[in-house]
Amino acid sequence: MLAGLLLPGTASAAEPVLPLGTDGQGAHLDVRRGGPLYRGRPVLVLTFDASAADRYRQIAGRDLVVACIRFERHPQLFDTAAGGGSGQLAPRRQRPIVVMINRRYDLCSIGVRHGRQTRVLARIPLTAFGAQRLDEHNAAVAVVAAVRTLARPERPSAATVAATFHGVVLTAPTDTPPAGVLGVYSDGAEHVYAAQIDRSGKLLFVEQDGDVTRSNLIDYLLDEDSLGID
Amino acid sequence: MSVRLLTLLLALAAAGADLAYAQEPPAPLPLGTDGHGVRLVQRGTPAHLVVLLSPKRYRQVAGRALQMVCAPVPDVTLGADLVGGPRHDFRDVPRPRGSVGAVLHPPRRRTPLVTRLSPQWDWCAFVVRTVRDRGRVTREVGFATVPLTPAGAAFADERGVALRVIVSDLLLLPRPERVKQVARWLHAVVLSSPAETPPPGRLGLYSDHRRHVYAAQTDRAGDLLFLDHDGDVVRTNLLRYMQDDALLWGL
Lengths: 230, 251
Prior knowledge:
The structure holds two protein chains of two kinds. Chain A is of the alpha+beta class. Helix content of chain A is 17%, strand content 33%. Chain A has helices at residues 53-56, 128-150, 158-164, 218-221, and strands spanning 27-33, 42-48, 63-70, 82-89, 97-101, 107-114, 117-125, 168-169, 183-186, 191-197, 203-209, 212-215. In chain A, β6 (107-114) and β7 form a beta hairpin. The radius of gyration of chain A is 20 Å and the shape is elongated. Chain B has helices spanning 2-14, 55-61, 150-172, 179-185, 239-243, 245-249, and strands spanning 38-43, 48-53, 65-71, 100-104, 113-114, 123-131, 137-147, 189-190, 204-207, 212-218, 224-230, 233-236. Chains A and B meet through α2 and β12 of A and β12 and α5 of B.
């Protein structure tokens, strides 16, 4: 999945495509040296800055679920990535929360458990590779949602779907949308297409022409948890 | 993923998939029977389904629990939002959407098995359930699939071919250089390119021995069902089966 179409003039994989250690909305996950309980090993500490006090209220006193994953750098078909998780009650008053020992994870998700379901509040990349996967995930989710909307039985127009997803209308499936912007195409009948270039320059697309589907997002079309942490 | 492949292989075996296909496309599936001693007939007013089994097939289910599920032909499109979330438990055989079911308890002596199910469905399927202590179902083995309408027969045939194409593709994907070995095991033909069409009713496999894998077969209606993996790009007309486990290998 990672060896995709790289367009010229886009970020290389070495530069993080998203800021590391934060979700950009006030939640931070830092690696710090653990106390005696952790025998000085590096631990992940969850903090919320002052501007995110209202976000902290969503977890205060609740069952906090943190899941982290380290992706395979050269995945084979049946490889599974290594991951870890922790669950604890978040303190009612805002303070740093030691969530788990850091094992060089790429990406973590912060969620709150409601009964048997977990609601994800933030996904925080810890490495450049994790940031790239998270950005690809965000773009892929938008592409799949757009093409499913285009393929609805009532066949909404490409302009309607583009307005809904803040995207642009493509004149043909061979057109490439501007970087970071969702592009949609529909012939109003059987042929629909949605594509977006993620920040690493990879073109993510789904094309449905009659019964035939063509895509490089098959995991997302199959509704499999492609990040492995939610 | 490996659990899923194993499950699909077991389903393929349990479905009794006919691995050696004839050169000519076979005739449409007969209605009301699986062709191997299982018949479904309509009796009474209001009409209900009755299961008639040959002596040999009856011995396989006598004294055991027989799960029966009848369903309409699903109408699934990419935008229909029929797909649920990811399913992590592959132990239970999934049930198709919109289906009705009944558990039959055939007595030791052979007798028609009367159900309360109406005959309005397109197809019915049976599994033999093994129930152990505290009523827990520990094993379900495919027993028969019986089409009731032409649409149901077409669906049952297409589903069998789809299962075969998808499983062969999954077998080939991790080791694309072993295309001849996989083709021999599945009684398939090796194609020289993905543009080539396999003989009617015969599975065709292609591999460039690197990242391009292709599997295709025509069903009884003459439609070519295919799955093409070229690097990370997938092209297929079997997405609805790949999206829904119940559609692919469920009852």
